[in-house]
Design brief:
13 helices; single chain; about 0% strand; mainly alpha
Length: about 300
């Protein structure tokens, strides 16, 4: 198995873990309040990632801590609204709506940094908007509070992606990522102490969901993505990450027998198509393959 194939397989595993996070959050919310769940999830993930990368802390500086605080704060906003939104929407809806992050990123770049989006982004936005309407609007043409919060979470996460790109220029990205997890967990604990009555999970199901979120979806997901993206292409990464809502819907169907109406599946398909259109430049990819094929044939 070559290096890129191994990297793609790792990315598929990471994407599956992230797709499962909606199911695990839904399970955890049965007995643990929202901010308490965030505090436990990211607190444990921070400890695990810290144990793995502790040697990098020897070169820790104020800039890394400052950037980690900023990213952790933005990530906390994104995860908070998604976690709260999950209490009043389905796992499948959450998975497809959160994938809109891919569409929001180029739109925000165009808005704040005057980077004109490509035509395929505009097509992706149109398909995504139609898909959202089919997926979320009821007969009175109203969107539920849960669906709205998931979309808001996707917007916050798009801001997080842009901020990450800006703040990783002059610091160690892995150390920054670890501290980001720590600050996210710290914000969760602070809000839980203020608004809730934080406690450890009291059932085996709760412990399972928290540990799965911490180990699989956060610690391993973070480490796996960081390692794998060095050895695969942006096109492969975009295609694989687009599988996240499909994994979410599939796992929701298998474990909690969650089924969307026919209109919902059509909307989900349009959202997915819009995300793929915005994320992956198929024309460029196919042209690159054709050029490589021509070069190889000429060499032969």
């Amino acid at each position: 198995m070559n290096t890129q194939l191994k990297a793609d397989f790792m990315m598929i595993m990471v994407t599956m873990f992230w797709g499962s996070s909606y199911l695990f959050m839904k399970m955890g919310l049965d007995s643990i309040q929202e901010f308490n769940l965030i505090a436990l999830r990211f607190g444990i993930a921070f400890i695990l990632a810290g144990v793995v990368f502790y040697k990098r802390f020897m070169h820790l500086d104020f800039q890394t801590i400052k950037s980690g605080f900023i990213l952790g704060s933005i990530l906390f906003l994104a995860i908070s609204v998604v976690t709260i939104g999950l209490t009043s929407t389905s796992i499948s809806n959450a998975g497809f709506l959160f994938s809109l992050t891919v569409v929001f990123v180029p739109l925000l770049l165009a808005l704040f940094f005057r980077k004109k989006p490509e035509k395929r982004i505009a097509f992706g936005v149109v398909f995504s908007i139609v898909g959202i309407a089919l997926l979320t609007l009821n007969h009175d043409f109203q969107i539920s509070s849960g669906d709205f919060l998931i979309i808001l979470g996707a917007l916050f996460y798009a801001i997080h992606i842009i901020a990450t790109d800006k703040l990783t220029k002059n610091v160690d990205s892995i150390t920054l990522g670890v501290f980001q997890l720590g600050f996210t967990g710290a914000w969760g604990l602070l809000f839980s102490l203020w608004w809730e009555q934080p406690h450890l999970p009291s059932t085996s199901t709760s412990w399972f969901s928290i540990l799965a979120l911490s180990i699989l979806c956060s610690a391993i997901g973070f480490i796996g993505q960081t390692a794998a993206q060095k050895y695969t292409t942006p096109t492969h990464t975009g295609l694989i990450f687009s599988l996240e809502p499909i994994f979410a819907a599939f796992l929701a169907f298998i474990f909690v027998e969650e089924v969307l109406p026919a209109r919902g599946y059509l909307g989900a398909a349009l959202v997915l198509f819009g995300v793929l259109t915005a994320k992956v430049d198929f024309k460029k990819s196919f042209m690159s393959k054709g050029i490589r094929k021509t070069i190889n044939e000429s060499r032969a």
